[in-house]
Design a protein that fits this description.
258 residues, mainly alpha, 73% helix, globular
Length: 258
Amino acid sequence: MPVLRVLAALGSIALVAYVVVKAARHVDFSQLEWWPLALAAPPAIAWWVLLARGWALLITGHANRKDIRQWCRTQALRYLPGGIWAPVSRATIVEGGLVDRVATVGAENIVALCCALAIGALGLALGGRPAYAPGVLLVLLPVLAKRMLGERISLPEDRVRRATVNGVAAFVLYALSAIAVQSAVSGWSHPLEVAGAAGIAWGAGLVVIIAPGGIGIREIVYVGLMGTVLPSGDAALAAVAMRLVMVAAELGVLVAAR
């Protein structure tokens, strides 16, 4: 078992490292300011750690290194063809019956999706697109869903609530990182729209499971949402650079949590 754990860790690191190298090939670094990218790194790392912490909160009700490490390793599998292997692999380590396993993995994804879309909707609404304002209410959906299901699933409501609060904090950090990345391309303009577009785009990438890791989908949605306030070339370059920063943060956390 120790040998298998080492091999699993090395395989996960190699897979994410490959994605980092591949993303870097599509970034023209000569068009970027470096110091905003340096500012983008800490919130990106903290965002990734909080996502892992959210899984631990759902599993045991508190953050612990074991569950965080398992999440980081299995999350790398989302880059494999099909895009479903990360949640499927996590379902195998959840205690309980099939319903409990599916409910826990489903809750993790619903919490992340609702928090990303809520933060995205808030940013776009504050940036001058009030039609997105109702989307902020999505942050209430995970807890409401648990109350509707009641005792049919054993996942405690307090865990869902804590994971949701954790998710909101995570995607606030994600938005801050996205603002810093976009500023490396086009300056510190339209930060609210950038934060909003980044959150919505992340959610779109999660939903479209046929795209491993949301690659391509998030970039397309981000450019589409930012097309009204920034040149499409600036938004596209920032979208790819954002992918690079986030995956590099993932690789750093994965190595540290091995």
